[in-house]
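Inputs:
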Amino acid sequence: MGLSTDGQALDPRTAPEFQTAARSVLNDAQLRKNVRHATTVIQNKRAKVVGELPDWQELREAGGALREHTMKFLDAYLEQFEANCTRAGGVVHWARDAAEAREIVVRLAKESIGDAPSEVIKIKSMTTEEIGLNAALQEAGITPYETDLAELIIQLGKDQPSHIVVPALHKNRAQIREIFQREMHLPHLGETPQDLADAARSFLREKFLRVPTAVSGANFLVAETGGVCIVESEGNGRMCLTLPRTLITIAGIDKVVPRFADLEVLLQVLPRSATGERMNPYNSIWTGVHPGDGPEQFHVVLMDNGRTDVLADEHGRETLHCIRCGACQNACPVYRQTGGHAYGSVYAGPIGAILTPQLQKMEHAESLPYASSLCGACYEVCPVKINIPEVLVHLRSRVVERKTAGLRVLTNAEALAMKTAGSLFRSERRFRAAQRLARMGQGVLARKDGSGEKWISWLPGLLGGWTQVRDLHALPDETFRQWWEEREKSKKHAGGAA
Amino acid sequence: MRVSIFITCYNDTLFPQTGRAMVHVLERLGHHVEFPAGQTCCGQMHYNTGYQTDALTMLPRFVEQFRGAEAVVVPSTSCVTMMRDHYPSMAQRLEASGKYPGIVAEVNALLPVVFEFSEFLTKRLGLTDVGAYFPHRVTYHASCHGLRGLGLGDGPESLLRAVKGIDLVTLPDIERCCGFGGTFAVKNAEVSSAMLAEKVQGVLSTGAEVCAACDNSCLMHIEGALHRQRTGVHTMHLAEILASEPEPNIAAEVRSGDVVAGDSEAVVWV
Ligand code: SF4
């Protein structure tokens, strides 16, 4: 069975710039239709259940405050989690980066598997996607089985996730059926949602019952109790958490919450924002191990992988408040056009545009902070009130800082243009001169249309993008300030004559 | 009231007719209009593209030009959003540099009297009917900065509804971005165009003759596609519609805003 994910992995270090990747996606009419449809459906569901709560804004406020507080004392809460998890019989591991995390998980999986067939079952986890865990497991001779329906579709289709909550959102039902027919060897598979769910169920059931090692991510880690929380809709998670002998959970250090009671807020805002449900069908919280009940061995790998660097940036750190609900992706008009893959990262959309470059220490994915029109729709829906546009603009300034360090400004057309414009705006005289020059300079570009108005339909260089699909009204003969001055003059004359 | 106009750099250069219309409406309402001559730009383009140090240098000029103003009125939702969202922290950085003592206090005093044009009419003056006449089918593009940045809500449309003769049609997906986004339109031209295509479809579906907004930057982008596609649909800043008066005998082109011979103040917007 071809279960390998040998489709090109989403790696921000090697991914093309957003604008380049987007260009090719924009030609995929089917994908764009799927994304538009899916995001619209989820958005509408979200709007409905959010609208039911009279205290939604207060909940967002509380969610944001809670996350801010946690990040402020992150070190203390992580240690508290470690102590409580260990006391309950879990084993806590610390991973500095992706390589360390992969190495730990692979080692633990091997220990658990022993002489049994080399397999693990997996619950959907963006953290494992972030570090490319499946490829690492396969390299070590271990076959990972994704058990979340969407992740299964991605895995069988040798595809990559395009959304943090609904990873196969770019595929429609017919395409999914085709993947199942091919990969599950079911040539006569029907096409109703029921048919597809049944096929996935029987494909997975056997694995739940057979494979004794599971790998999961986490939605929250509760410092106060050492408990781990996962919410899901399909029940595959619950199977993975209860049936296997060994459970290995990997979580970013940002997933911790101080108290059990904090889930009161987060478990209200998360499902409503993520899938438009009032509550997730399955809410699992487990604490350590319990003889005769659930896994006998439980490991938690706490991974940094760039998160402390994010925390160190005063203006960027609110990015870590994210609870991965995906609402910003559904609301984003840019994501709506391109879907997730163009972002070249498992974290796509607005959250990806701020998280990915920061996790890469601003050394890669520099085009992502610019993959936004700053329309603010993401901020409006974010259940923990992350001011994404604000962070985007801050990250742009970090990109510019790198780009214009020292004399590099001289070799960068955009930087040069911005510096020149800056100097014009600092002087009224220079600004006026530039207005005059622009009017003269447009002479060769402006042409009259049918109604005698002047328009420009071709622009050179950096501005060429504008005239690909738009015309530009030629500059009027008189600026506002010239009109005003003339008017004042003639008023004075009139006044003097009277 | 003494009203100072901050025209903004791009309206000054590209859309003088919006400024003229704004002056016309304000004077018709009996206000005294001023135009501080040394004004240039609010710094938005630099700030949002990542050149924040350059944007910083534009703030002292703004303060100097508008110090002591009773009201500063601006025909651009995005520039006002820029000022409200970023001027306080920019002022703090300038003050911390030691070169601009007192600028934090000055900015704090000035910002509460800065208004976007429609906001000035509805919130500061409490008006909806400003005596305009515009017998055309119009749809209103809310613009992200108007909607989410300034929270203008129903304000601009309430002004339009009060215009005599108007046939106002709601734009579908009114809360969705048109894809302009400043330098985004150039840096991510293809995505911006795809967003624009959806917006233009929405505008055309209303059957409107004119698409209005409180921000000429969105309109320049929308107008660019409407013209390229030869749709015959025009765009107008809200101020230009509000400046229009019942002068059915004088035919003038939409957006021409010519000065009528012999009377330097009578601008006719049909
Ligand atoms: S940034 Fe906010 S809206 Fe986006 S995924 Fe994170 S929590 Fe959800």
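Confidence is low (pLDDT under 50) at residues 248-270 of chain B. Flag for discussion at group meeting.
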